[in-house]
From TrEMBL:
It is a multi-pass membrane protein. Residues 349-359 have a biased composition (Basic and acidic residues). Residues 1-18 form the signal peptide. InterPro entries: EmrE-like, SLC35_F1/F2/F6, UCP036436. The keyword Signal applies. The keyword Cell membrane does not apply. This is Solute carrier family 35 member F6.
């Protein structure tokens, strides 16, 4: 069946805003500017402040939800009303996972390339599959286990590509390795978030904008408060500020004042995450989880191509092999091979409902996928 104009718009919106989200975050990281008190020029490395901005973008979805709800009430439309009562505190545990995972991924993005960042996020399949078996009582099909194994192989190849690539002063080999490991570690937390959402939230049939916005509200408030103690906690080599603390929000604002383009990059990151989450959820609803997976893979290609074109990273052929293997793993896990096999055997292709069920947490993208 041919796509409608609205479906094409959603697919394009997801692809464009998802690419902007990662690229704008990396663009901000590449800026060098003076900080407060006439300090020397240094890189804009403020991952926790960037994570606060990401949650602000998600929070805007909550405002959009209530605006649409008021509009629907005037037209006696009940589609925006909750299907059944639920406690908003159900969103707190997933929001804490989202906050932790996103912060770790923004730290990692300072250390590695945008394309490796995007590819290594595919590790979420491994942990999501294992946790769904352990905590949701699901039984994975053989193709899903093969998908997990293929994903592990792809991660190894991408890691080797990072090890063998040329490294400049900005991304030393030790930092790249640390960044890659942090990204994989963050996927464990993201997988826990997806399992929690699957177990406690989706059964309430909460409107997608309300779900994203509520988690954004919790994340924004909690992480904003945590910026205060982070200003005093020493972080050593992990700190990007002259004071050597975990996060120096004042230094970040001083750098933004001296280099206004940083504000543009942050604004792109904040606005894109709101539209990306909404578009991703809507694509799953209007099309299928498999379509969303394909678009997310195309997003990786766009980010990779633009990073090469902008000179942010050097090309290495192993990355192509790693990406292809990761793509195969994702396709196997999400059942993308089934329509092809059914056509070859002249059977009936799987339904969209089956596609949604195979992708755990398909109606929610926790980061920016950090990101």
């Amino acid at each position: 069946m041919a796509w409608t104009k609205y479906q094409l718009f959603l697919a394009g919106l997801m692809l464009v805003t998802g690419s902007i989200n990662t690229l704008s975050a990396k663009w901000a990281d590449n800026f060098v500017a003076q900080g407060c008190g006439g300090s020397k020029e240094h890189s804009f490395q403020h991952p926790f402040l960037q994570a606060v901005g990401m949650f602000l973008g998600e929070l805007s979805c909550l405002a959009a939800f209530y605006l649409l709800r008021c509009r629907a009430a005037r037209h006696l439309d009940t589609s925006m009303d909750p299907q059944q009562p639920f406690n908003p505190l159900l969103f707190l545990p997933p929001a804490l996972c989202d906050m932790t995972g996103t912060s770790i991924m923004y730290v990692a993005l300072n250390m590695t390339s945008a394309s490796s960042f995007q590819m290594l996020r595919g590790a979420v399949i491994i942990f999501t599959g294992l946790f769904s078996v352990a905590f949701l009582g699901r039984r994975l099909a053989l193709s899903q286990w093969l998908g997990i194994l293929a994903t592990i192989a792809g991660l190894v190849v991408v890691g080797l590509a990072d090890l063998m690539s040329k490294h400049d002063d900005q991304h030393k080999l030790s930092e790249v390795i640390t960044g890659d490991l942090l990204i994989i570690m963050a996927q464990i937390i993201v997988s826990i978030q997806m399992v929690l959402e699957e177990k406690f939230i989706y059964k309430h049939n909460v409107h997608p904008l309300r779900a994203v916005g509520t988690e954004g509200l919790f994340g924004f408030v909690i992480l904003s408060l945590l910026l205060v103690p982070m200003y005093y906690i020493p972080a050593g080599s992990f700190s990007g500020s002259p004071r050597g603390t975990l996060e120096d929000a004042l230094d970040a604002f001083c750098q933004v004042g001296r280099q206004p383009l940083i504000a543009l990059a942050l604004l792109g990151n904040i606005s894109s995450i709101a539209f990306f989450n909404f578009a991703g959820i809507s694509v799953t609803k209007e099309l299928s989880a498999t379509t969303r997976m394909v678009l997310d893979s195309l997003r990786t290609i766009v980010i990779w191509a633009l990073s090469l074109a902008l000179g942010w990273e050097a090309f290495h052929p192993l990355q192509i092999l790693g990406f292809v293997i990761l793509l195969m793993g994702t396709a196997l896990y999400n059942g993308l091979h089934r329509p092809l096999l059914s056509r070859l055997s002249r059977g009936r292709p799987p339904t969209e409902e089956g596609e949604r069920e195979r992708l755990l947490g398909a109606s929610r993208t926790p980061i920016n996928d950090a990101s």
